[in-house]
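pasting L-cystine uptake protein TcyP for the record, 464 residues
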Amino acid sequence: METGFVLLNVAGLLLLASILFWMNRKHVSFSKRVFTGLGLGILYGVILHVSYGVDSSALQQSVPWFNIIGTGYIKLLQMIVVPLVFISILTAFTKVAAGKNFGKQAALILGLLIGTTAIAALIGIGSALLFGLDAEQIVQGDAEISRGVTLEETAADVSDKVLPEQLLDLLPANPFLDFTGARPTSTIGVVIFAAFLGFAFLTIRRKEPEQAAVVQKGIDAVYSLIMAVVKIVLRLTPYGILAIMARTVALSDYGAIVNLGKFVAASYAALIVMFLVHLAILAATGLNPITYVKKAGDTLLFAFSSRSSAGTLPLTLNTQTTRLGVPDGIANFAGSFGLSIGQNGCAGIYPAMLAVMIAPTVGQPIDVQFILTLVAIVAISSFGVAGVGGGATFAAILVLSALNLPIALAGILISVEPLIDMGRTALNVSGSMTAGVTTARVTGELDNAKYDEVMARDASVSEL
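structre below
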């Protein structure tokens, strides 16, 4: 009997996927297909949850089949992350005019990424205090306790190292190892290695322009190849989001969400305020923030649904260049560095809120000195936070370890992690794009006409 229900559930998902396929054949825009996949996934998840219940054997047996589409899609995103980050950084160097604003661009991008993360930490602290969050008030079940134990084991290696050693670990002793994603800081390792190759290219271009032309042609060819793979994967986005949302909603513990509702509300309040800060930064440079929201909306929705900053990178780059008027070089720098440095949601708001929740449990007062120390540690620890899921957990471990706060209590939020991670990821991506647009504006390289022009249909994803 259960096998019949499993087949029925899978058939239902495939039927919904066929609707998306039909929309694709009718050339419905990419953003509408993504919205449709999101909506159908939520609706189907609610139907499954109400029909079976979270603990139903039929539902549990259906999930592995859903994962073929959902988790399979995420794995394909992860497949393209490292090659895309590597070639994007290299391409950024090839598109930099010799000596033209290079130092200023890099300094502005890094300054904005790190500075906004410090602001995000302050907002996270304020939200936690305003909502009166306290880790001891939250009921812990078996899943939360188990997660806490796992986090303590993960943190053991981190806590044994002082901050300078942790920073030293960012350097890629073996870049080919980092290409496999073997270390938690592999993404920043790949970025650093690509940057060294980029600086080497600039040296060759200055001294041996003919050789540099050959190298640039090869880099451009590889970039075109990687982007072709990216487009193939992105075409699967509506189907992936459909399966991911159906699974997530069907298996969500609504009781736990209600129990942790105050933390969810505080998190989204902080995320919204920080997004408004992004808009304020753009407005301060004379740009229309409403235009930014309209043109970046599809990309932010994709980030929200996929929960992967790295998986969103192709759209992050394309949106900046084709919709917002950012030059290729600045867009590639801001997008790629934003994957592992200064993620406002995962590395800024989240660990700051956790620290404020947990500190009172060990008698640590939330005073000015603690807040300043926390903000500084959050900013420094934001280097090397991976952008493919788990980044927020790694950032929290670094911050809590540096403050000598108990890691295990971070496990109390496992039930609502997916729900909050959606908003955090969208904010991370917005931070990267804000850094790119602002840098281009300040250095006078933004195409203002392109930024202000009326948006064409699916300009950033028209070929999908």
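The mean pLDDT is 82.
The CA atoms of residues 145 and 411 lie 6 Å apart.
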